Amino acid sequence: MTAGPFPPGQVYLGWQYELRHDDPGPAPRRPVPPHPERLNPGWVAAQRREESLISRPARQAAGACLLLAGLVVLLGWSGWLNPALTGLGAVTCGGLAVAAAASAWRGRRAVGAAVAAETRRVTAARVAQERYVFAAQDDHARRFRAWQGRQRAFRGQALWYPVSVPAETDRVDVAGGTMAGWSALLTMIAMPRLAAGDEITVIDLSEGAVARDLVRLAGQLRAAPLVWVLPADLPRFDLGVGLPAAAMADILAGCVSAGPSAGSHDPALDHALLGRLLEVLGDGARIRQVTAGLRALAQVGDPREDVRQGLLTTRQLERITGLFGRAAADRVVTERAWALEAHLRVLERLGSDPAPMPRSRLRVVAADPGGGAFGNAVLAAYVTATLTYLLRHARPGRPWRHTICVAGAQQLPGEVIDRLAGACEATRAGLVLAYRSIPPPVAQRLGRGNAALAVMRLGNAEDAKAASEQIGSQHRFVLSQLTDAVGASVTDTTGESYTATMGTAQSVSVSESRSETTGRSRGRGHTSAGAAPFAARTGSGSAEASESYGTSGSDSLTDGINTSTSWGITTARAIGLNSSLGRTVQRSREFLVEPDELQRLPPSAVIVSYASGARRRVVLADANPAIYTLPSATVHAFGQARQAGDRTPRAGPAEQSAGWRPGGRPPPNPGPPPEPPEWRRR
Hints:
682 residues; alpha/beta; Rossmann fold; 22 helices
């Protein structure tokens, strides 16, 4: 992006397509000067010819009178006429000749005067024409310069503006969306936060690796991510290990509520049973010890085997079997202990083989599809409940200093979500909850409190209807051609999965840097083992990464988006196939917020609704992170750009029409390229 990094302290959900300057249209036409006025030689010849015809009798009469006068003089001189008659005849004939000649001369003079008058008229008309032409040319020059200014403003204007929610917003509720859409939105939200030195925790319950692009891009900001894929990484996942007994009882009781029998029992009984059991086991008890104690209460298996394995001591076994009376155990405790053991045995390998972990500002905990629906539900509830406990005991910080994103939050019980939202609000941590569907419990929580609502594509008609009613069907939006074209090229399923960093932590640390080992050990020893991976603090490494982003991180991030993410490759390919998409000056279609329109939104399109002052704003945005690399994108909000004007230098018209960055390569010829075109600033 030519405008630089994002301003800090903002939460971005996508890009808004707006035209501040309309298309000025074609250039004003150059004035065509009229044919110049000139004296018509044919008219002059006609006047002279007509005068000659008119004066011909006078000329002939003058000639005849002169001839007659000469004859009279000749006859008088020869004596045929007396002198008096000769003089009289000569004078008479001479006078008639003079009169006829004068008439012919006056006619010729009148023709000359008419020609002279016509010449003066033509000269005056020519001067008036030249004055009109000069005025028209000056007016055309002024209008052409004004058109050039509007054309430069139109071609050099920013077309994509970031859509941000106010910093006082506590939560963002995402309703609907595909896996590809969630991947784009998660990358759009997290990358500016990581660039600013903040921390991101992603709980991916979608089983679709929606944070895959984000994990790839995090390396561009020197923020090596930590990825746990559960249940495979449970031995190296130590979240919650070493917590006090009371806290562990509360967390484990909340995990049972995620099972299929959540609504058929009293959670207070589970909490009391686990609390007493953990009092016997003591603080820092492992999950395997808890399940061993539950088996002893449920009278399942041989408790002596657990004693031989070191999970329980003889003294602990005696105290556990004596916690409840025999009658109570027969009627209630045995059944609940058996049910609790069935739920918690999924967590038995938790923290059994911890690995040295570096300090990271990006942490991803993902559910593996191979874990099973029941096991993943328990794991999701455990991670969320433990994170809620750690947040409650953290000091409040800057708003959105630590952002937590939960993809697939509809799988969590409502009480777990409410407690997590309350803990985030108390500590000012940002929370993003993405719901694939909108069942009644989710519909009751959408937009509750000081939250922004983001609606993406909804497949179910009832969900689309509920979202349309909450947003308001009176809003009309215009979809950009780029959003429609790129959305049609992105597949909803990528067929890829996460690569757990915990499984290769040792090899990565050796190949990348050996000097980080001491810093990693010191970072883990700073807090308890359970709180270390999710601590809401940033050390010197985060500040260093933020500083590097301000200098050269923008270029590497741009290159990473174009070459490392599916969105960057797809966007570059779409622009390469259609040069007009580089400017996106064409409208795709206009639509109202209606259920059928919400069901056919492009994957990256998101309708954002949030409170702004005394009113509520509703904006159509595109969560495509590759828009960041377009030369027509700016990091300044649309309202700020409209007030201050676009002062950012832009590419020339030829470059912008093709959608390429200054100094970039020309776009490829139309046709499917063999590889994604390189699309980066040099």
